[in-house]
């Protein structure tokens, strides 16, 4: 590689670093990392809440998932090329049945329904590579 090409490549790389990158769903890397953390935490919390029959924990998990956007159910099959999404409204109802505050559960259920219909640009899904490194990934439509 000639010196001119090296300088041009370095200049291009430095301008890339100074711009704000946007990923699927129009999210910046920071917002995507925050949303991924919410999804990971909320799914784990929902599993614990379900096992312990803890309504308040389930309510927190439902609220976090509603804020993060659509999340595909782990292990669920695709239907017509689209994933089966976690129903956060159903999670809020389950939380109420487990003893969570009814008013809070209803508020989360209404928020969950409006957020799921508003964000139709993609969804979160759980993926593992051949080395068994697993993570939540946002896929845009």
List the helices and strands and how they pair.
Elements: H1 3-18, H2 29-52, H3 55-68, H4 88-97, H5 102-118, E1 122-128, E2 134-140
Antiparallel strand pairs: 1-2
Keywords for this entry:
2 strands; mainly alpha; 5 helices; globular; 141 residues; single chain
Kindly describe this structure.
A two-stranded antiparallel sheet has the order 1-2. 57% of the residues lie in helices and 10% in strands. It is globular and about 40 Å long. With 141 residues, the chain is mainly alpha-helical. Strand 1 (122-128) and strand 2 (134-140) form a beta hairpin.
Topology, number of strands: 2
Q: Please estimate the helix content.
A: 55-70%
Strand percentage: 5-15%
Given as residue ranges, the uncertain stretches (5+ residues, pLDDT < 50) are: 4-22
Helix and strand string, N-terminal first?
HHHHHEE
Report on the biggest sheet.
2 strands, antiparallel
What would the average pLDDT be, to the nearest integer? 80
Form type:
globular
In short:
This protein has 141 residues and is mainly alpha-helical.
